[in-house]
Amino acid sequence: MCLWKLFKQCGQIYKLTALFRVMEVDFLLIGQGIAGTALAFELSQRGKSVLIIDDQKHHSSSRVAAGLYNPITGRKMVKTWYCDALFPLIEPFYEGLEEATSAKFLFKKRIYRPFLSIEEQNEWMGKSATDLFADYVLEIFTTPQYDQKVNDPYGGILLNHSGYLAVAQMLDAFREAQLPYISHRREQFDESKLILTDEGLTYADVQARFIVYCNGLAASESKYFNFLPFHPVKGEILTTQIALDSEQIINRGVFMVPTKARTYRVGSTYSFKDIYGGISAQGKDEILEKLATLIHISPKEILAHVAGVRPATKDRRPFVGVHPSFTQVAIVNGLGAKGVSLAPYCVKQLLGQILDGHKIDPQLNITRYL
Ligand SMILES: Cc1cc2nc3c(=O)[nH]c(=O)nc-3n(C[C@H](O)[C@H](O)[C@H](O)COP(=O)(O)OP(=O)(O)OC[C@H]3O[C@@H](n4cnc5c(N)ncnc54)[C@H](O)[C@@H]3O)c2cc1C
């Protein structure tokens, strides 16, 4: 046989064996936003192999998020939902991720919330000492703290166990770190190629025991999860320079997160209109108007303006659980406006069920929609 024919035959044999080469993993995850990253990390900590498929959309909710975690929220300043269960997990979880990736993206920062009235100040003087709040309130101020640059005539409250996660940095660091047990593929997941089997599933050349949908709002198009009531909420954020030196996050009506000297991320808006329309003049004006009620100085230059869509839900609770008919198909989603604080708890809940046989907290479990 001539040399050329031999080469051709070898090539064909190589192609044939490649066809039968399979990648075996315990878990196939769809999406590497906050949810997919947290789940993959938790799985790797438990010695499970993972393949994450993500199309790396630049404007995913996680990539634009301000990343705040804040125990006391809302106009009425109440403890955030499930605060006592979620907050003890947040910092140790992301510190573990920082250590594993040798990167810095968790910034523990106090949140300063100006009081709106003398009544509110009085109320918090009493409330802050009670068992319910003592751990979350660091200090109460009764006088202005920022040389009249901030609108805080009655002082304000300084919160503990708060800060922000530089989410985009975390996602990049996690992908680049090449951690044991974790592989990544940058591609679009196509559900029509997914085949469920007795042992688990196959997807193209991948064999896995479980698949978990961590793909944000795209899960609403999945035939397995289109029964879940998502309620997308658009949000916009500005990055701007302000002649104010603050180590703390300032937050009342609008947040100001200091990211560099005199540079702040300011936001964000909540809108149900023109959800996928991207940044808008209206969004920018709304943020600047709210900022004008929080500080007495005008921002200088606007350095960036971004928009994203939060994977929020009708009942404002996350979607965590295993599909009722297909036990190899699961979901961690619906993290809404609080992905950073919810993700560690949600992924632990899911793995508690899949790996340890515990029941998922009914408040999160997707079974509430069956
Ligand atoms: C303006 C704004 C401000 C916010 N601020 C905060 C904040 O301060 N604190 C906070 O905790 N949260 C905040 N959030 C909310 C937070 O961003 C979300 O809760 C969180 O990012 C949701 O993460 P996720 O991983 O579930 O979804 P996503 O971030 O949407 O991630 C899903 C991933 O799946 C990928 N994907 C989807 N479909 C496919 C497919 N077919 N194939 C492959 N890959 C796919 C996407 O590209 C993406 O990478 C904010 C959101 C917005 C929009």
Characterization of this structure:
By secondary structure, the protein is α+β, with helices and mostly antiparallel strands. It folds into three domains: 23-64 and 168-229 and 315-369, FAD/NAD(P)-binding domain; 111-159, no CATH class; 233-310, D-Amino Acid Oxidase, Chain A, domain 2. It is 28% helix and 26% strand. The chain contains eight helices and 21 strands. It has helices at residues 3-20, 34-45, 61-64, 83-101, 118-127, 167-176, 281-294, 339-356, and strands at 23-30, 50-54, 68-69, 72-73, 78-79, 106-108, 111-114, 137-141, 156-159, 163-165, 182-186, 194-196, 201-203, 206-213, 233-241, 249-251, 255-260, 263-267, 302-310, 319-322, 329-333. Strands 1, 2, 11, 12, 13, 14, 20 and 21 form an eight-stranded mixed β-sheet that branches. An eight-stranded mixed β-sheet has the order 8-9-7-16-17-18-15-19, with helices on both faces. The radius of gyration is 23 Å and the shape is globular. The termini are far apart. Residues 13-17 have low confidence and may be disordered. Residues 30-36, 53-55, 57, 60-62, 64-68, 188-189, 214-216, 218, 235-237, 267-268, 308-311, 333, 335-341 line the site of flavin-adenine dinucleotide.
Core attributes:
single chain; 370 residues; alpha+beta; FAD/NAD(P)-binding domain; D-Amino Acid Oxidase, Chain A, domain 2; eight-stranded mixed β-sheet; 8 helices; 26% strand; binds flavin-adenine dinucleotide
